[in-house]
Amino acid sequence: MNILAEIEFTGDWRLLLIFIPVALGLWWLSRKWDIDRIRGYGRERGWRFEEISYRFFGPGWFGEKEERFYSVRFVDEKGAVHTASCKTSMFTGVYFTNDRVLDSHECGG
């Protein structure tokens, strides 16, 4: 007896055809908005970002539900090159941690 042959398909699988693209689209938009938010934060301070990369986990991730994490590389207003971890969400703002100066020869440091 083939159990799979006896299952009646009710059309619920069609909801997946709608849900999956919508979920992926919202995820993509949230990342785009995050990057725009991070760039805006840096722009206000005179920074220029060289790289912003999504990370599934980051410092302080345990217990966080809504924030997303990024690794960033940027040049500050004095010309120093930094790497840092960043977390952000639509409601909590932008937070940097583990900021390391890689190269500060241009700013006299």
Shape: elongated
**Cross-sheet strand order for the largest sheet:** 1-2-3-4
Helix content: 25-40%
Could you report the average pLDDT, rounded to the nearest whole number? 83
The CATH class: Alpha Beta
Distance N terminus to C terminus?
A: 77 Å
Number of strands: 4
Number of helices: 2
Stretches with pLDDT under 50, minimum 5 residues:
none
Percent of residues in β-strands: 25-35%
Structural descriptors:
single chain, 109 residues, alpha+beta, Nuclear Transport Factor 2, Chain: A, four-stranded antiparallel sheet, 2 helices
Could you characterize what this model shows?
With 109 residues, the chain is an alpha+beta fold. Helices cover 33% and strands 33% of the residues. It has a 4-stranded antiparallel sheet. The longest helix has 32 residues, at 13-44. It is elongated.
Write the layout of secondary structure elements.
Layout lengths: L2 H4 L6 H32 L3 E8 L12 E8 L5 E9 L3 E11 L6
Antiparallel strand pairs: 1-2, 2-3, 3-4
Structure in a nutshell:
By secondary structure, the protein is an alpha+beta fold. It has helices spanning 3-6, 13-44, and strands at 48-55, 68-75, 81-89, 93-103. A hairpin with a 5-residue loop joins strand 2 and strand 3 (81-89).
